[in-house]
Structure formats: C-alpha cells, structure tokens
Amino acid sequence: MQIGLVGLQFSGKTTLFNTLSKKESDPSLQKEEAAIEVVKIPDERLDKLTEIFQPKKKVNATIEVFDIPGLKMSDDNKVRITNAFLNNVRNNDALFYVIRAFKDESVPHPMGGVDPVRDIEFLETEFLLSDLAFLENRLEKLKKDVQKSKDEKLKKELPVIEKCYSHCEAERPLRTLELDENELKLLSGYQLLTLKPLAIALNFDENAIPKVEEETKKIVSSLKEKNNPVIPFFAKIELELSKLEPEDQKVFMADYGIKESALAKILRTSYEMLGLQSFFTVGEDECRAWTIKKNYTAQQAAGVIHTDFYNRFIRAEVVHYDDFIKYGSFNKCKESGAWRLEGKEYIVKDGDIISIRHN
C-alpha cells in the first residue's frame, strides 16, 4: 500500500519526504521521477512491548511513500498539470497534499504568492476535471457497447459510471459519493483521482507556532470540502527533529513550544486512510507489528504471517494490548478472562496481541 505526496514546487514536500524516509537529498533539485521509500509507522505500543520482552529484533509496520515531483511554472507563466504528473498520482492508494503556508521571498511561489486555499482548490479542480474527462469517455463507450453486446457486466457498470459522472459534473469529488463494495470494486481498476482517500499537510514556518491552530482553522473554514484530515506541520523543524536522539527531541520541542511532532500524526493518518491497522506478535526473538486491512478475520491475519498458518489454522490466542498492559502478564490476563481462544471468523482488532495455533 502506498501514499503519494502531492504539491506545488517549493511547498516543502521533498523536505517532508526526507524526514519521513530519513534520507538526505537537496529539496531545491528538480526531480523528474517520483522518489519511493518504505517508511516505518511509529507505534508507542510496539515500543512498550519491546521494552517488556527485550527481543532480539523489533519490526515496525510500514507503508510506501512516493515523493511526486512538484508542479512548477511552465513557459507561459502558468502552472500546468501534465500527463506524467497525473500518472504518478494515479499509482498511489491515497494522497497527501503538501501545501505551502509559509512566506519566504527567497523561495518564489510558482503561482505568485502564498495562498493555501487556492493551492488546495487548484489540485482538487484539476483532478476533478481529469476524472470527469475519463468518465465522459467511458460513459460514451459503455452506451455503445451495451447496445452491441448486451453484456451483463457492462449493464451493471453503466449506472455506476453515470452516478459518478453526475457527481463530478456537480463539482464534487468522488470520495464524497456513497458507493457500496461492489461499486468500489467495479471502479478500482480505473484509478480515479478524486476517489482516493485524501489528507492535507499545511507547511508553516516557525514564526507561525504560537498561532498555528488559529491559522489552520481559518484555512479549513474556507475549503469547499471540510471532511479531509488537515495536519499543520513545520517541515524544517521536523527535519531537524528527525536527526536528534529522543531525549534531545523533547528539549528541542520544548524550546519551540511544540507539544507533539506532526510526523507521527502524518504517518498514522496515512495508515488509517489506507484502511489499515496493526496486530502484534511478541516473544524473545521478535516483537512485530503486522499490517492488515480493517475487518480481517483471525485466519486472514494468520495468513499475513505465513501462508501455512492460513491453510492450517486451528485457533488464535488473543489478548488486547490494553489488557496486557493493565494486567502485566499473559498469566494474569488468563486469570482475569482477558486472554481467550478465538476461531477463524474472529474479527481482529487494532492492537490485538496474537499467537496462532496451527497443525
């Protein structure tokens, strides 16, 4: 599963990518290809379990992050959306708009001035027009093909495409349209841009720290669509934080008056947007967070560990993380009734500690 960082040139997108991936690259260099890194998801629960079990290895859950080359001014003094850019965006399962909210005369904005709402609406409008053009062409082709072939599959697709087209024509992104599982499955191969889950990262400078909450609320209140997660962050500060040891990070954040690093929140939000959650396996050899989709059964979760566990699944021993921390050991969890055996249809919860019984 992968998430794409999308934004205009000089938005701080590559600085954020460098921070997430712990890589060093010059943000001022204009890349022609998307950079890709596998990024660890911070999880305090896994950290605590590792502290308790002292394993040889700790393995965090991960996602792939794509740094899509930023949109820049073209020769006619306008920012143009290219097919190469759209194709890069389509390759992702969810999107994070990285939006500039800082002023710096030494770094020109490609649209002439800093205006976060304008930049967000620009991206949304361009993606909406791209979807609308695709749906219009698909609708026209479907109508012809249905008349010729009478194919039942095409007949089922036609009303779904019509519904999506009407929604986009009304200037509403497809993520705001109610679609059932069958409809989503039917649309999955088309990689529609406004159907992808979206969050917004607002990049402020350090001068905005005292009023960042107020400024973020102003921006959100001006947006057409207000249901997407919006996370304020400070790209340069986050990059400096990522280079420090944990104790030094706390001192650094206290000096700047920052209560929490936005980095962990951005990654957690990305994880949640993709419909993912984690369960844990623990022991002396390894403590690991395993990534699964929400509503996975115990048998499906077992299959993520190893295909043999899926095929030869008997039972899952389950204790939720909160119960384990509350009671302090597996034995005490058993005594209290928090430890239990679950069958293959059990729906795994985020934070379950699981051991698989198999033959």
Detailed description of the structure:
With 359 residues, the chain is of the alpha/beta class. It has 3 domains: 2-111 and 196-273, P-loop containing nucleotide triphosphate hydrolases (Rossmann fold); 126-195, DNA polymerase, domain 1 (Orthogonal Bundle); 295-358, Ubiquitin-like (UB roll) (Roll). The chain is built from 14 helices and 12 strands. Strands 2-4-1-5-6-7 form a 6-stranded mixed β-sheet, with helices on both faces. Helix 7 links the parallel strand 6 and strand 7.
Detail the topology: elements first, then pairings.
Elements: E1 2-6, H1 13-21, E2 35-40, H2 44-53, E3 57-59, E4 62-67, H3 83-90, E5 94-100, H4 116-149, H5 152-169, H6 181-187, E6 198-203, H7 212-221, E7 230-233, H8 235-242, H9 246-256, H10 262-273, E8 276-281, E9 286-293, H11 298-305, H12 307-311, E10 313-320, H13 321-327, H14 330-336, E11 340-342, E12 352-358
Parallel strand pairs: 1-4, 1-5, 3-9, 5-6, 6-7
Antiparallel strand pairs: 2-4, 8-9, 10-11, 10-12
Helix pairs in contact: 1-8, 4-5
Structure characteristics:
359 residues; alpha/beta; Rossmann fold; DNA polymerase, domain 1; Ubiquitin-like (UB roll); 3 domains; 6-stranded mixed beta sheet; 3-stranded mixed beta sheet; 14 helices; 12 strands; flat
Average of the residue pLDDT scores: 89
Report the order of strands and helices.
Answer: EHEHEEHEHHHEHEHHHEEHHEHHEE
Proportion of β residues? 15-25%
From the spread of the alpha carbons, the general shape counts as: flat
Assign the CATH class of the largest domain: Alpha Beta
Write out the CATH superfamily name of the largest domain. Answer: P-loop containing nucleotide triphosphate hydrolases
Report the CATH topology name of the largest domain: Rossmann fold
How many individual domains? Answer: 3
Structural class: alpha/beta
> Runs with pLDDT <50, length 5+?
none
CATH architectural group of the largest domain = 3-Layer(aba) Sandwich
